[in-house]
């Protein structure tokens, strides 16, 4: 009797759970996503077709995807895309995978960007362009500039920008502010590297597949944040905002750095998990 989709799904679920130490719900979800990608069908389709025979070519496609996940490769890299702020972004191993908690950074930025004004926005270290593209689409009158030192990352961001129609977004290769020639902005936003270079998590789980340059930042994880804060004082217009994401235990240190640099209304905001994830300040001089 030929294998069915349900049988193959259960086998994939068990294999993922054992290899990656996932709980049953996580491993089943991963297996469902990979199976649906192999079949080119939505997950809702599976419920009505779980007893369908699993054709050899379908089994081969599913097996190839499953083997990649069993090695720990993130689902987003296997599929080549990740949803962020209800938009589908292309991702490759050249860019950090957009994460749900970064949506807080976007929400806080949008609250400070009037919809009826041609404000200037800078996204530092844009990676896939998820933050910059989202801001550009939600504030079509704004002029958004996104920079990254990686030309490969910028190609991914450019593809996302073009595919999603962010016509008010410009991309520049730059090591933070180096190529901006004194330009000033109403708002600067960044999801920079903020993990300590010796953190053992960098060699574990999904993170080990992501670009280290987008993750690690010096002995305490704050080197790039220091650079961003210091440079922002020369690139913000009066009453401009600087907002950036940081690690779960870095909020107090980030507030101190912002205050020392002369920012006002310094605040940290928690994500849905209650973790202070984003800090910001107003440049009033």
UniProtKB/TrEMBL annotation:
GO terms for biological process: methylation. It is an enzyme of class 2 (transferase). InterPro entries: DNA_methylase_N6_adenine_CS, HemK-like, N5-glutamine_MTase, PrmC_N, RF_methyltr_PrmC, SAM-dependent_MTases_sf, Small_mtfrase_dom. One of its GO terms (molecular function) is nucleic acid binding. Residues 108-199 form the Methyltransferase small domain. S-adenosyl-L-methionine binds at residues 125-129, 148, 176, 191. Residues 10-80 form the Release factor glutamine methyltransferase N-terminal domain. Keywords: Methyltransferase, S-adenosyl-L-methionine, Transferase. CDD domains: AdoMet_MTases. Pfam families: MTS, PrmC_N. It catalyses: L-glutaminyl-[peptide chain release factor] + S-adenosyl-L-methionine = N(5)-methyl-L-glutaminyl-[peptide chain release factor] + S-adenosyl-L-homocysteine + H(+). Its EC number is 2.1.1.297. Substrate binds at residues 191-194. Methylates the class 1 translation termination release factors RF1/PrfA and RF2/PrfB on the glutamine residue of the universally conserved GGQ motif. Belongs to the protein N5-glutamine methyltransferase family. PrmC subfamily. This is Release factor glutamine methyltransferase. The gene is prmC.
């Amino acid at each position: 009797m030929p294998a069915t989709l349900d049988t193959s799904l259960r086998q994939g679920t068990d294999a993922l759970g054992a290899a990656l130490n996932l709980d049953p719900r996580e491993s089943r979800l991963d297996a469902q996503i990979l199976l649906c990608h192999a079949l080119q069908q939505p997950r809702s389709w599976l419920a009505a077709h779980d007893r369908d025979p699993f054709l050899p070519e379908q089994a081969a496609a599913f097996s190839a995807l499953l083997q990649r996940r069993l090695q720990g490769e993130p689902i987003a890299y296997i599929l080549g895309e990740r949803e962020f702020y209800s938009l589908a972004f292309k991702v490759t191993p050249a860019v950090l995978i957009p994460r749900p908690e970064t949506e807080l950074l976007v929400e806080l930025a949008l609250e400070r960007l009037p919809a009826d004004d041609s404000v200037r926005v800078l996204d530092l270290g844009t990676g896939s362009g998820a933050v910059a593209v989202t801001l550009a689409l939600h504030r079509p009158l704004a002029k958004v500039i996104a920079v990254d030192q990686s030309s490969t990352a910028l190609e991914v961001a450019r593809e996302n920008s073009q595919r999603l129609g962010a016509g008010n977004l410009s991309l520049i290769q730059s090591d933070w502010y180096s190529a901006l020639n004194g330009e000033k902005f109403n708002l600067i936003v960044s999801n920079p590297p903020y993990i300590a270079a010796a953190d053992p998590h960098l060699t574990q789980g999904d993170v080990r597949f992501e670009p280290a340059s987008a993750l690690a930042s010096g002995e305490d994880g704050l080197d790039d944040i220091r650079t961003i804060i210091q440079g922002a004082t020369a690139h913000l217009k009066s009453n401009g905002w600087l907002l950036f994401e940081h690690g779960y235990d870095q909020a107090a240190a980030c507030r101190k750095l912002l205050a020392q640099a002369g920012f006002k209304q310094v605040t940290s905001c928690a994500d849905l998990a209650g973790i202070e994830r984003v800090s910001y300040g107003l440049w009033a001089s």
